[in-house]
Amino acid sequence: MEVSAIAPGIYRHVSYGRLPNIGYYPSNGLVLVHDASAYIIDTPWQVADTRKLAQWIADQGWTLKASISTHYHDDRASGIAWLNAQGVDTWASAQTNELLASQGDALAKHTFSGEGQWLWSEQAYAWYPGGGHTADNIVVWLPQAKVLMGGCLVRAMQTQSMGNTRDAVMSEWGDSALRVLDRFEDAQFVVPGHGDVGGPELLMHTADLAEAVNREIVDDE
């Protein structure tokens, strides 16, 4: 696992999961720091790396207060059970908790429903734009630094595919990305679930990729 600063008080953590026929594959998450309190946006892929990240936070002299997961897959939510056991406030949308429950996975302690939710003294805003990579994917806006955690709704510029579409809502994905672009058009940094950090152009790139896939689906029909 690697941690690096991308903006004042905002750190990207990169962890790895093993995928069939691919090998180890990197996954992005964030740590937000405010007044010596730390908040994790998407836990690392492996539980062991969530423990390492929590230790790194403690080593900086910060107190880990809470986390939020942007959807229910392991690369976003595998650390929830361990964080719950440490007394950390875990957050997810009500839809994400329902999907975690359907798999028998640990649930976040706190949920929200509806379109959006301010968190942690309005340091972060969780927003649901519609389906995409999954039915429950949300984004998290960090207004002080103008950083948007797009999660797996957002594709990196270096990729020309939609990645894992097993649980995707392809009919909504492109429109969801454009809604995020419209809502957070002043974002300076956009963090995809996997790959390099970019700007708002990642959202248009995602919408273009989704449109191409949907055209292929129509043509095949």
TrEMBL record:
Enzyme kind, highest EC tier: hydrolase
Cofactor (UniProt): Zn(2+)
Catalytic activity: a beta-lactam + H2O = a substituted beta-amino acid
TM segment ranges: none
Domain of life per record: Bacteria
Compartments, as annotated in UniProt: Periplasm
Pfam family, one: Lactamase_B
Keyword Signal: yes
Metallo-beta-lactamase domain segment(s): 26-194
GO biological process: antibiotic catabolic process
EC code: 3.5.2.6
Keywords (A to Z) from UniProt: Antibiotic resistance, Hydrolase, Metal-binding, Periplasm, Signal, Zinc
InterPro entries membership: BlaB//VIM/IMP-1, Metallo-B-lactamas, NDM-1-like, RibonucZ/Hydroxyglut_hydro
Family affiliation: Belongs to the metallo-beta-lactamase superfamily. Class-B beta-lactamase family.
Quaternary structure and interacting proteins, as annotated: Monomer.
Listed name of the protein: beta-lactamase
Gene that specifies this protein: bla
